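ok so i was messing around last nite and threw this chain in just to see what happens. nothing serious, just curious
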Amino acid sequence: MYTKKQAFPLPFIGEYVPRGLAEFKLHHEFKYIDDDDPSKNVTVPVYDPKLKFLTDGGSIPPIAYLVIGSPWRGKYVEATIIHDWECFLAKTLEERKAADKKFYKMLGILGVSHWKKRAMYRGVRMGAWWNKKKILAKGKTD
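result:
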């Protein structure tokens, strides 16, 4: 398994966007390199006003901050940026599930504890279920 520096070779450099949530737009590419399968590598591009992709880090409800941590503090931040991008692109439930599985793997690379990885994975799977209609609608409109 890759180290954090091998899997995430570029630093996250972004700008805060004051819109209610703590959202950021990227000023530089951000990458994830998969050690098992190069086809699963991910590059998040620099902010493009046409795409309007913003990352909110971990979509962690405030009630869980004491247990999991806040959206932008913790070992998991790099994984949340890649996961946000893959969810932004997902047009099918299968693509979303693949993004969630990759998120779980990235949490392990980043050294997130087993119980926290499981809790965060369950959280993103619940998010997929909650946003099922929105995910399916993206697949129909493109």
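not much to say yet. The chain has five helices and four strands.
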